[in-house]
Structures are given as structure tokens and as C-alpha cells.
Design brief:
Layout (H helix, E strand, L loop, with lengths): L1 E7 L7 H16 L7 E6 L12 E7 L2 H9 L1 H10 L9 E4 L18
Antiparallel strand pairs: 1-3, 1-4, 2-3
């Protein structure tokens, strides 16, 4: 299994709160329809600790393989998700395909573990 990760930035005419509300209340449902999607997590940046990278949020999506990711991205559902991004976010994010190496698994407490 692989994971895609990316940075996300609010459009200039959106507050961070409006950006996150649109993503969680509207865009997530569109994006979650991508075929082959095995997991989907949005992490809101609460505080930057160090480094040069700026981001309002990060997105993580799991697929069985890079090919499954590309097939999903090319599907009508994937295209609908990409088309919706500009409704609330800048399209200048950086994305990667990564392979996780879990050292200490997070607690299994379900969705919204750290929501507040």
C-alpha cells in the first residue's frame, strides 16, 4: 500500500476557518468518492514549530499502489475532486507518493482523534 501526501493552502479570499469548513463539509465528500481510495485524512496545521515550509493543512490518501492512485486521479470522480479544489484552495500545493514506515502506531480511537 502507498500513501499520497500533500500540502494545502487556503485561497486568499478564504479565512483558515472558511477553508477548513469548506474542505470538511463539502470537498471531503467529493474527494472520498475516488475509486480505490483506502483511507483519507486531513490534518489542519494548528501551530508551526520550525522550518521553512508553510501550509494550512496536509492531506493523506491511501491506495493499493501508485497505479491505483493514478487510475483514481484520472477517473471522473478523481477529476471532480481536482476540479473542486480551486473553489476553496490554492492549486499550488506540493504532493508526494510515499511509503509509510510505522514506528509507533497511533492509538486506534477512530475518526477525529484530535478534533477539537
Amino acid at each position: 500500500m502507498i500513501k499520497t501526501m500533500g500540502t494545502a493552502y487556503a485561497r486568499d479570499d478564504f479565512s483558515k476557518e472558511e477553508f477548513m469548513a469548506y474542505w470538511l463539509d463539502t470537498h471531503a465528500a467529493i474527494s472520498a468518492k475516488a475509486p480505490g481510495l483506502r483511507g483519507y485524512v486531513v490534518s489542519e496545521v494548528v501551530e508551526k514549530i520550525q522550518g521553512d515550509l508553510q501550509s494550512h493543512a496536509f492531506v493523506e490518501q491511501w491506495y493499493d499502489s501508485p497505479e491505483a492512485f493514478y487510475a483514481a486521479a484520472d477517473s471522473p470522480e478523481g477529476q471532480a475532486a481536482w476540479d473542486d479544489v480551486s473553489n476553496y484552495a490554492k492549486t499550488s500545493g506540493t504532493f508526494w507518493i510515499v511509503k509509510e514506515h510505522v514506528i509507533v502506531p497511533p492509538p486506534d480511537l477512530g475518526p477525529g482523534l484530535i478534533s477539537g
